[in-house]
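Weekly puzzle thread! Below is a chain. First person to post its structure in C-alpha cell form gets bragging rights.
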Amino acid sequence: MVTHTTVNKQLRDINTKVGLSRRAAVRELSNVLYADETILHCVFGAYQGGRAVIVATNKRLIILDKKLLFLNLEDIRYHAVTDIQFSNGILRSSLTITSGIVKTEIRSVSIAKLRALCGYVQEQVFAARGDSARIDSAEYRLVTRAKASRLSGRVLLRKAATHTVV
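Winning reply:
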C-alpha cells in the first residue's frame, strides 16, 4: 500500500493538479496502488455517467470513480487490452479501450494528456505482448515534461520517428 503523500508527490511530478471534487478519488488511489507502482500518466474525465480519474502506471491502467456511497474501480492489465482507439473533437477527446468483451470509454477535455496516455498504453500493450508491431510516424509524443512545463501550461507535441517496439 502507498501513502497519500506518495500519491500526491507522484501526481505533482507529472504536473497534475487535483481539485476539490477529485480529492476523494485521489485519496482512494493510495489503497489501490502497489508499493512498487509509479503513476506515469493521469487524466480526469467522464466515465459511465460519472467523473473518474484514469491513471496509467508502470504495471496497469486504473480507472477509479469514487462517490460518497460507492466506488467503481477498473483494473486493466496491459496484456489484456485487445484494442485502443483515440478520437479527437474540437472541445474534447475520447479514448476507447477494449479488453476482452468489455469496452470502456473515457471522455476528457484534456486532449493532450489523453493523447499522451493513449500513446503510453499502446507502447505498454505492444511491450507486454512482445509484438514487433510498428508505431507509425503519425503518432504524437509529448516533448519532455520539463520543456512543456516551462511553456506555462501549453503542451507541445511533435511527430515521433517511425520505430519498432520490441
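Puzzle host: Confirmed. Bonus trivia for everyone else. The longest strand covers residues 39-47.
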